[in-house]
Design a protein that fits this description.
- The chain is an alpha/beta fold.
- The two termini are 23 Å apart.
- It contains ten helices and eight strands.
- Strands 6-5-4-7-8 form a five-stranded parallel beta sheet. It has a three-stranded parallel beta sheet with strand order 1-2-3, with no helix packed on it.
Length: 193
């Protein structure tokens, strides 16, 4: 994003370490990372100085970069992911998902999908499927919609920053635009865009 480029540039000029922590699929299949594959030396000031990536991530987009300018640190399961997987909410999601043949993950990004959920709430509430709603980390659900969903037995809002649990439980993924489309595709989960 333009904001990210400006932030990285400002941090580098001021001598502040700026990092990118992987929160979705990283690598050449993701446009946000693919553009880095062809970056030239003069553009380094516009990208973070450190990339924190999950172990096993395709890091070829960084291999050609000057190690003095950009570093890559591989990390294992961060504590915040591990603690979420052991939480009461995670246990509830797993239990509810195990009782349903269809577990739909809806990852929200833009504006029309929350409206669709709100408009089709009677259908969601009466459906035999189990619905996991994941708001975008920077776009929390409206309070009125969140309250409606909280009172529905077959719908749960998973607003944890890590999507690991939701992805591991679903067999259908619905999104308008999310890097989760790449992750669920890799796991042979049906995507509806």
């Amino acid at each position: 994003s333009n904001f990210g480029l400006a932030l990285s540039n400002t941090c580098r000029r001021l001598g502040i370490v700026c990092g990118d922590f992987q929160h979705g699929v990283a690598g050449l299949r993701n446009q946000n990372y693919k553009i880095l594959y062809d970056i030239d030396f003069y553009s380094y000031s516009y990208i973070p100085s450190t990339f924190y990536l999950w172990h096993g991530t395709d890091s070829r987009f960084l291999k050609h970069m000057d190690a003095e300018m950009v570093s890559c640190i591989f990390v294992d399961n961060p504590d915040f992911v591990t603690s979420h997987l052991a939480s009461d909410k995670a246990n509830k999601i797993r239990a509810m998902a195990s009782m349903s043949n269809t577990v739909l993950l809806i990852s929200l990004g833009n504006e029309w999908l929350p409206k669709l959920i709100s408009d089709s709430f009677p259908l969601l509430a009466s459906d035999d499927a189990f619905w996991i709603i994941r708001p975008h980390p920077r776009k929390p659900l409206q309070k009125s919609l969140s309250a409606k969903l909280t009172n529905c037995d077959n719908v749960i809002v998973d607003d944890h920053p890590s999507p690991v649990l939701a992805i591991s439980c679903c067999n259908v993924h619905l999104s308008e635009s999310s890097s989760l489309l790449l992750e669920t595709k890799d796991l042979d989960i049906l995507n509806i865009v």
